[in-house]
Amino acid sequence: MPKVGMVSLGCPKNLVDSEVMLGILASRGYELTPRAADADVIIVNTCSFIEPAQRESIDAILEMAEYKKLGSAKKLVVAGCLVERFRQDILREIPEVDFVIGTSELEHVLEACESPADRRTLDHPFDPYLYTEFTPRVLSTPSYSAYLKIAEGCDHPCSFCVIPQMRGRFRSRRFESVVREAENLVRQGVRELTLIGQDTTSFGRDLGLRDGLPLLLRELGKINGLVWLRFLYCYPNQVSDALIAAVAETPAVCKYFDVPLQHASARVLRDMRRGSSGDYFLKMLEKIRRAIPGVTLRTSMIVGFPGESEGDFKTLMDFVAAAEFDHLGVFLYSNEESSASFALPDQASASVAQRRQRQLLALQRKISRRKLKSRIGGSLPVLVEGRSEETDLLFRGRLECQAPEIDGHVLINDFEGAEPQPGEFRWATITDASDYDVVARLGARTLTGPPTAGPRLVRIQAAYAVPHLQKGNRSGGEPVRALLQRALQADRPR
Do the domain assignments include residue 494? Predict the structure, then answer.
């Protein structure tokens, strides 16, 4: 049977889409390979959130196109968000691309891989896509951890964001479907589940389900064998009392809130079409902290938004100093041509935006260092991820307050008892801390037993991947359409 290789770019939501496409192909007999040179079919699942991500996607497409010349690849399929925005441009300017499928066409990936040469896109209507618990899926994350997408699309009108244009209107998966998939994943050995969606806090609302996310957390928290359950991307005006109570009262749910606030100036938030203010946010954060002592709070901010004055930025700095977040990501505003904010006056220069980014990150670094040092001497459960490849210390892991891929790590310099294994939960004593990571000594006592054995899961090693945009990038330079138009004349990666 043909071999298929996948390059998955962008966010965890896109990663789940890649896993679904690979699952569909594997169920039809395709062999999965991590080596592009060995693949008969290569799929690039693209990101198009901001212009730097679009550039990375185009580079990946061009790099994979070379394997049609130098390797065994006979077909190159481009999928995902970039297709939603630049479908015809990709087909016109990069003839090496054999087929394109958008975010709502993923279930047609087999058709894309087996289509005749004269057919490069779907020619029939399709409905907005949501996978179910019956959809084949191949996990690319470590066998003990998985993402679980509970919804797709977004209905919020944020002026800087183009996600609704790529992902469509908000739509929830059925409650029972999510629960069944979670149960299936835990049976396979998954011990940590991370719920994702463009807006997890709206889960179930389109289906007439009130307090859908709190109900889901409580139900998933009953699954035997699930140790950590977290959710990402809360919309701030939907952090309800019911949600706070569900996090506080469900032992398996990590005491962790990821609430992207984007700014604290009421004027900037108004222009972002998000509303609210820093004062309201501080009250919300205080309510969470009162209900859940020791809770971890994460957010993201945008600097350099059109019209952001020095006064607005000072408001943001003062807010971050008062809020004392555990984790903070800072994005540089990216002026996307199809966003509502594209034509706003008073666009900030790149140098001003970058200076503000540095200042805000420097402030957060001090807060993070102080918070982590306060943990020294404490005993906490650690999820062991494996041997450390980036430091001289022995192993690497994460605390409950550290979400996969986006937060810091636990660096393990010593351990008692048996050598720790990936996916194992061990109690650890924190012995040192830096700006974003802590050092710990593992004890012999485990939190629970090792993961139960399940079907072998394939880990896909992307030949090319976009790093997590925790610090962000600023749009600038040549527009993406111009890049596509020059693709044929550009020097291709060798």
Answer: no
Q: Give the number of domains in the chain.
A: 3
Q: What is the pTM of this model?
A: 0.90
pLDDT reading at 493 higher than 80: no
Residue 406's domain comprises 379-446
In the listed set 371, 391, 415, which residue is the last one of a domain according to the structure?
371
Per DSSP, helices labelled H in 102-234 are 109-114, 163-167, 175-187, 212-220
Could you give the strand order of the β-sheet that contains 296-303, starting from the edge strand earlier in sequence? 256-258, 296-303, 327-332
Residue 464 lies in a domain: no
Sheet holding 99-101, edge to edge: 31-32, 3-8, 41-46, 75-80, 99-101
Which pLDDT tens digit goes with each residue over 430-469?
999 999 999 999 998 887 633 333 322 333 333 323 222 2
pLDDT tens-digit series, residues 106-133: 999 999 999 888 789 887 767 778 999 9
For CA atoms 64, 67, 72, 76, give the dihedral sign: positive
Sheet holding 145-149, edge to edge: 145-149, 192-196, 228-231
Residue 293: CATH number of its domain: 3.80.30.20
Question: Buried (b) or exposed (e) across 310-347, using 16+ Cβ within 10 A?
Answer: eebbebbeebbeebebbbbbbbbbbbbeebbbeeeeeb
Provide the token pair at 427.
């109690």
CA within 13 Å, CB half, 454: 20
Residue 405 φ/ψ region, left for φ over 0, alpha for ψ in the -120 to 50 degree band, beta for the rest: left
* Each residue's pLDDT tens digit, 376-432: 999 999 999 999 876 667 899 999 999 999 999 999 999 998 899 999 999 999 999
- Residues 47/80, Cβ–Cβ less than 8 Å: yes
- Please give the structure tokens belonging to residue 203: 């889960």
Does 163 share its domain with 193?
Answer: yes
List helix spans (H) across 66-203.
Answer: 67-70, 81-93, 109-114, 163-167, 175-187
